[in-house]
């Protein structure tokens, strides 16, 4: 495990301290979890971007053509 010195504005530090206390975790654990979530979001966005570049509109339309023509379920209407 690595140590990291981090400078934060006092207001952010107060929020982190308060939320970590409410969640019942240490500040280190809270920050580690928050950073892991951010990394996951960025990697997922990158992955989806790479997948989107490989997509073909013709394949998408072919799949959509197989969707049955019926009324949407209650609550799904536009």
TrEMBL record:
It comes from Candidatus Brocadia sinica JPN1. InterPro entries: Arc_rbn_hlx_hlx, Ribbon_hlx_hlx, Uncharacterised_HicB. This is Toxin-antitoxin system HicB family antitoxin. Signal peptide: none annotated. SUPFAM superfamilies: Ribbon-helix-helix (SSF47598). Pfam families: HicB. Coiled coil: none annotated.
């Amino acid at each position: 495990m690595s140590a990291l010195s981090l400078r934060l504005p006092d207001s952010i530090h107060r929020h982190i301290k308060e939320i970590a206390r409410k969640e019942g975790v240490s500040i280190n654990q809270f920050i580690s979890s928050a950073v892991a979530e951010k990394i996951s979001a960025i990697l997922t966005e990158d992955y989806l971007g790479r997948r989107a570049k490989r997509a073909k509109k013709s394949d998408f339309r072919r799949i959509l053509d197989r969707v049955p023509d019926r009324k949407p379920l209650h609550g799904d209407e536009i």
